Amino acid sequence: MASDFEKRLFLNKFRSLGLNSSNKIIVGVDYGTTFTGASFVSSKGKGLDDITVIDIWPGTFRDTTAVVKAPSRIAYPDDNKGTCTRKWGYEVEPGMTACSWTKLLLDQNTALSKYDDPLLEKTSEAGILHLPEGKMATDVVSDYLSEVYVHIIRRIAKQITEDTLRATPLEFWFTVPAIWSDQAQNATIDAARRAGFGSSTTRPNDEIYLINEPEAAAIASLKKYTTKEIGRLVKPGDGVLVCDCGGGTVVYQDLTTYLILKIHPTLAFEELCTGTGGKCGSTAIDREFYRLMSDRFGKVFERLPMKRKRPGSDFMNKFEVIKRDFRLSNGPMDFEIPLNMNAPDANSNHFDSDEQLVLLTRDDLLLIFDPVVKQILALVQQQIQEAQEVARYINRIILVGGFGDSEYLREEFQKSFEPMGISILVPDKPQAAIVQGAALRGLEGLRSTTKKCRRHYGFQWSIPFRKGIDAESNSYIDDFTGVKMVSGIMNWMISKGERYEENYTCKSFIRTMHYWYQRPETSISLYACDLMDAPERIGPDSYLVGVIEMDFSNAELNRFPSKYIRGVLAYHLEYELKVIFGALDGVLKFEASSQGKKIGYTSISFNTIRYY
Q1: Which of 308, 401, 428, 586 has minimal CB crowding within 10 Å?
Q2: CATH, range 453-606
Q3: What is the helix (H) or strand (E) element at residue 565, kind and residue range?
């Protein structure tokens, strides 16, 4: 609990910034796979120094009083006898059945890549990606985020008084992986709204937006590295690759490269390459560790109660410390982890039965680290090559996220890239960079001036038949026009790698036939493709993003061309479809208009594919 002195200190700080009902508080929220952080700042703040990173989180199961993040886990009473209320973060005891890594289940539409962790599915079978009976992933995420929301509100209220908070709008900036599917981004913001973030009946002026994690990290890191205080290590013309490595935390490995345009009077940068990523972050090291334990101890380890080995257990907390501090230069050769396990037949080089200690060597840790680190290095090398293809050179790599603080990872980056003339930078407290950047985005409006589209988007339509090009099997005669057409042709509205600015809008004019007896509605399927060169026809490399639904209730049908087809009145409806990329709230937006006015209702039903 904050002391009276702390309350006065923060209250005076916010008063000096001119905080009142005409201003707002900007809140950054970094909901991670295994840890979550938050920060806030008055809209009258001057920059990074005025951002408060929340470093007090409830619960007794934390190593120190001040921690910048809380575990992304929640335990329900129905799963834990003797517990009457939900427990979350550091309140969750190691012996509880808890929901961990639930964020992964929001990302069901991102196809697996060659950089993804092959142990992910096996880990889910071990019960870590647990969902209580009757609850979906968005329900669990919403429940967890509702606890985070209450805590954020309490922390802000303690520093500026509840009366001031009630009169002050809140602007939330949620971070999401840049490689996430549109469905996952939509699921995140939906769960956050259900948890209380954004406008509500009690707080109608609150708002919520999304920002991708590498961009948030870039905003904070570039702001630091372009100031006089630390020598302006980043200058105009530099190519900077931001590598979001996560901590004992984020599963995603997210890379985006930026070109620095200017640093005065304000920082300006743009995306240089299409961002890449894979599910090969530092929790993949946890799964490599689980695999090593299973290989060495077999069913003795596998049958241990989850409370002894799941995230948050004493066993994994100790491994977390080892994982963060492990390095080759001047590092220890041997490591011990306490584990209550009955393994009389275990190799004495691997387990001390008397002291109940798992024994690891430096070579063991290399076996655990190297598969993951090699994937990360391969992703970085891919980005460097893509930058060279556009005649640009990357000369800085910034490591952020908790795993960015790993000594071993930094050593491997230095060995791999410093001979190429690329400097490796790790900002102070890299695990807080993303949540600081999210708040700074709202405070100063800093953002990439242009982005590069991460995939092709479009829909299929029909065009006049092209003799000698199109197959007869794909042809048909249009009932309304009588013209020979070919179906299954993709109309790609925006291409992978194409530059776009905020609120970039793509337009297409579409015609569809509508019989008088049908409901005044129509729909069109939105597809995406991750290949560099998109195919002309719909095929296995194109996948469904979702179905855009439109309501023609307000349209005057008699103003459209019409005719009788086989005795039934049909209309040739025409409408303009707009797909808006780069909207502030971070999700795809759609507008449809016909006869010079908006069609009543336009939305998208996202496709759902299970990968886990």
Answers
A1: 428
A2: 2.60.34
A3: strand 562-565
